[in-house]
């Protein structure tokens, strides 16, 4: 577990480290630069590698100059430094004086195109966590040129341009590697900015650990494996939970099968498919292990957990309203979320039982608009939005993107950094909703079913990628059952 904090929190810790712990700013800068260099050195192949440092006027730029010095000391002398315009901070000015004394070459902005063409590595020290607002035009132009180059980009603390209160579409460095100071920041884990950070590492540039521990996190990064209690020895199908899945349409009949198989792989004992009359023969032939019923004849209250939405198609509002009114535990996914948004807009959401909703980013935006929840498209705004959604619906929310976010009313957001594009395949979301429903039906509480379901889904994706390379969702499910079994402690 790693805390995710605000950029302003780390800026405050920096000041407190100086004022209360008597750690001079230059000591903090030296430590930050040294730890960044140690990470970068492990990545560079050969002392003749061409290094281009982009150095802003703040302390982030000073960190980059410390990296330059350490690299130079170890024989990495093929360097060029671009000092961006601006009044240097006092610590930055000291580092500039040292670099000048070393005789390390600096270049003018007019020489940047040629330097970028030669550079194998760009070290980004343009702007750090103290950035207020978007990059200025000159810095933004340099960032765009760096992003268009063939060089690998190494960002110190945060890719320049990212900030907690900057829009996710603001111009920013697209880093291959990021070494961040003190703790992960919310700007690093917005779904639209994560890819700009590349591979990340967290280091402590001598901030007192007690100060870091005192921060209230915006969210928590979960980096541990799922654990499950084993099934009882006398467990059988009627004690392992019964999931009913309302879904399917002629266009998307496979979603039912995938969700149902996901539930079975997550230890559900029984699965019933509730679908349209015209789909019954198809569903029965595709899913022989599952009972198939016409949706209008199914009583949701007869089951442990309802899953509504996979492959449903449009126009399901009245059916969803009836299912919700049964006030049974329900997972709402896919087209069920669109139907829920339409009911919310019309003010027709009935009192419900416990609820888990699993939107992707588009469905999240639709539902937020329907509930009149604002989105300012910033990292901090994103976390506020999903917390507000959980509180408004009194539901566990699972937001799906390259990262996955799980939040329950009044609780801290959990973040899962999958970064596994192989999971971006048709039916993967149906499998996830089936896993969550299966775990919930087996007796796990809603929040833990969502959390553990995400962990299992992501580990199954990694397992499938290692085993098959790229794969379809049927093969993904084959890995789910193995991961669940291994999670049993």
Annotation keywords:
489 residues, alpha/beta, Rossmann fold, UDP-N-acetylmuramoyl-L-alanine:D-glutamate ligase, twelve-stranded mixed beta sheet, seven-stranded parallel beta sheet, 16 helices, 17% strand
| CATH superfamily heading of the largest domain | Ribokinase
Placed side by side, the strands forming the largest sheet appear as 8-1-10-19-18-17-16-15-14-11-12-13
- CATH fold naming of the largest domain: UDP-N-acetylmuramoyl-L-alanine:D-glutamate ligase
Shape: elongated
Number of helices: 16
- Helix content range: 40-55%
The biggest sheet, with number of strands, parallel, antiparallel or mixed sense and barrel status, is: 12 strands, mixed
What does this 3D model show about the protein?
There is one protein chain. The chain is elongated and about 85 Å long. It contains 16 helices and 19 strands. Helix 3 (about 60-75) runs parallel beside helix 4. The chain folds into 2 domains: about 10-205, Rossmann fold; about 240-485, UDP-N-acetylmuramoyl-L-alanine:D-glutamate ligase (3-Layer(aba) Sandwich). A 12-stranded mixed β-sheet has the order 8-1-10-19-18-17-16-15-14-11-12-13, with helices on both faces. Strands 4-3-2-5-6-7-9 form a 7-stranded parallel β-sheet, with helices on both faces. It has about 500 residues and is an alpha/beta fold. The longest helix is centred in the C-terminal third of the chain and has 23 residues, at about 445-470.
């Amino acid at each position: 577990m790693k805390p995710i904090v605000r950029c302003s929190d780390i800026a405050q810790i920096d000041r407190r480290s100086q004022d209360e712990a008597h750690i001079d700013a230059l000591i903090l800068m030296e430590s930050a630069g040294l730890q960044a260099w140690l990470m970068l050195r492990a990545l560079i192949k050969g002392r003749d590698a061409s290094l281009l440092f982009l150095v802003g006027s703040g302390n982030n730029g000073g960190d980059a100059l410390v990296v330059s010095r350490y690299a130079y000391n170890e024989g990495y002398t093929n360097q060029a430094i671009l000092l961006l315009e601006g009044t240097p901070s006092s610590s930055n000015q000291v580092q500039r004086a040292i670099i000048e004394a070393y005789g390390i070459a600096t270049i003018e902005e007019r020489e940047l195109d040629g330097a970028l063409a030669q550079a194998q590595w760009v070290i980004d020290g343009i702007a750090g966590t103290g950035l207020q607002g978007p990059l200025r035009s000159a810095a933004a132009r340099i960032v765009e040129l760096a992003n268009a180059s063939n060089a690998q980009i190494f960002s110190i603390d945060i890719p320049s341009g990212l900030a907690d209160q900057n829009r996710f579409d603001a111009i920013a460095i697209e880093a291959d590697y990021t070494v961040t100071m003190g703790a992960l920041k919310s700007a690093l884990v917005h779904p639209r900015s994560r890819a700009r950070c590349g591979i990340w590492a967290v280091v402590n540039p001598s901030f007192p650990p007690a100060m870091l521990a005192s921060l209230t996190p915006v969210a928590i990064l979960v980096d541990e494996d799922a654990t499950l209690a084993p099934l009882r020895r006398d467990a059988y199908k009627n004690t392992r939970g019964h999931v009913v899945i309302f879904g399917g349409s002629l266009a998307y009949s496979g979603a039912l099968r995938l969700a149902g198989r996901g539930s079975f792989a997550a230890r559900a004992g029984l699965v019933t498919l509730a679908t349209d009359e015209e789909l019954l023969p198809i569903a029965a032939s595709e899913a022989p292990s599952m009972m198939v019923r016409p949706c209008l004849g199914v009583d949701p209250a007869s089951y442990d957990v309802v899953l509504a939405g996979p492959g449903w198609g449009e126009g399901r509002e009245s059916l969803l309203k009836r299912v919700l009114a049964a006030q049974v535990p329900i997972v709402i996914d896919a087209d069920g979320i669109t139907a829920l948004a339409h009911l919310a807009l019309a003010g027709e959401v009935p009192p419900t039982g416990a609820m888990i909703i699993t939107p992707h980013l588009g469905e999240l935006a639709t539902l937020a608009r329907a509930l009149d929840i604002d989105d300012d498209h910033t990292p901090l705004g994103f976390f506020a939005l999903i917390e507000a959604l959980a509180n408004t619906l009194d539901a566990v929310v699972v937001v799906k993107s390259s990262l996955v976010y799980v939040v329950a009313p009044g609780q801290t957001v959990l973040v899962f950094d999958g970064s596994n594009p192989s999971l971006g395949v048709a039916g993967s979301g149906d499998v996830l909703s089936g896993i969550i429903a299966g775990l919930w039906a087996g007796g796990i509480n809603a929040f833990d079913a969502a959390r553990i379901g995400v962990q299992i889904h992501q580990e199954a994706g990694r397992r499938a990628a290692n085993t098959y390379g790229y794969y379809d969702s049927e093969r993904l499910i084959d890995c789910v059952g193995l991961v669940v079994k291994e999670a049993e402690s």
